[in-house]
Specification:
- Helix content is 42%, strand content 15%.
- By secondary structure, it is α/β, with parallel strands linked by helices.
- It has a single domain (2-205), classed as TIM Barrel.
- It starts with a helix and ends in a 5-residue tail after the last helix.
- 44% of the residues are buried.
- The structure holds 3-phosphoglyceric acid (3PG).
- 3-phosphoglyceric acid is lined by residues 17, 69, 132, 158-161, 179-182.
- 3-phosphoglyceric acid binds at residues 17, 69, 132, 158-161, 179-182.
Length: 210
């Protein structure tokens, strides 16, 4: 499933992590990000309308690849899947989520930071992991130190990642892409400044994986 997931991402270096406060923003936001070169987006289940936002993007924005984030349990996993999510992101790894992923075709990107968590995920056959919260947990130097014992495990660091430090992560051999909310800040989403968001997406899409 990792290969299926990676081909879906198709080399996209940054996955926008979105918190949709007004469901009407979802479609124009997804369109702007796709125009800027970031078709794969993660809509987090941190707001009441998140599932509806996923449903609308899945139905109306053909060019987008919409995933669900902040999935904490099996129920949310299946609700997000039913809404049209192409991938599922979770802040951590639990037995319940491992079982949900095993019973589904939809790839799971679960969070793992410590060697023990990474080994848990690895035993479950999960080898593409979210390193979250990346900056707070130790940043690129921490992640770099995981490359040697965990050859074959690839990461998507998120949490405190911005244009300032994204390159440090993308330069690491065990990093495939980064995630972050900086491409869709509230100050631009609220007034619906889709052109500015498209521009931020374009800059992020140019942060090529080294
Ligand atoms: C996530 O769930 O990936 C993070 O909340 C994104 O973190 P950021 O807002 O610091 O980019």
């Amino acid at each position: 499933k990792t290969e299926q997931f990676l081909s879906l991402l198709d080399g996209q270096p940054v996955i926008p992590v979105l918190k949709i406060d007004r469901v009407a923003d979802a479609v124009p936001l997804a369109r702007a990000l796709a125009r800027g070169g970031l078709p794969a987006i993660e809509i987090t289940l941190r707001t009441a309308d998140a599932l509806e936002a996923i449903r609308r993007v899945a139905a109306e924005v053909e060019e987008a690849i919409v995933g669900a984030g902040t999935i904490l349990n099996a129920r949310q996993f299946s609700e997000a899947e039913a809404a049209g999510s192409k991938f599922i992101v979770s802040p951590g790894v639990t037995r319940e989520l491992i079982a949900a992923a095993a019973n589904s075709k939809t790839p799971l990107l679960p969070g793992a930071i410590t060697p023990g968590e990474i080994m848990m995920a690895r035993e479950a056959g999960l080898d593409f992991l979210k390193f979250f919260p990346a900056e707070q947990a130790g940043g690129a130097s921490f992640l770099k130190a995981l490359a040697s014992p965990f050859a074959g495990i690839r990461f998507c660091p998120t949490g405190g990642v911005t244009t300032r430090n994204a390159r440090d992560y993308l330069a690491l051999p065990n990093v495939v892409c980064v995630g972050g909310s900086w491409v869709a800040p509230d100050e631009l989403v609220r007034p619906g400044d889709w052109a500015a968001i498209e521009q931020l997406a374009r800059e992020a899409a140019d942060l090529l994986k080294a």
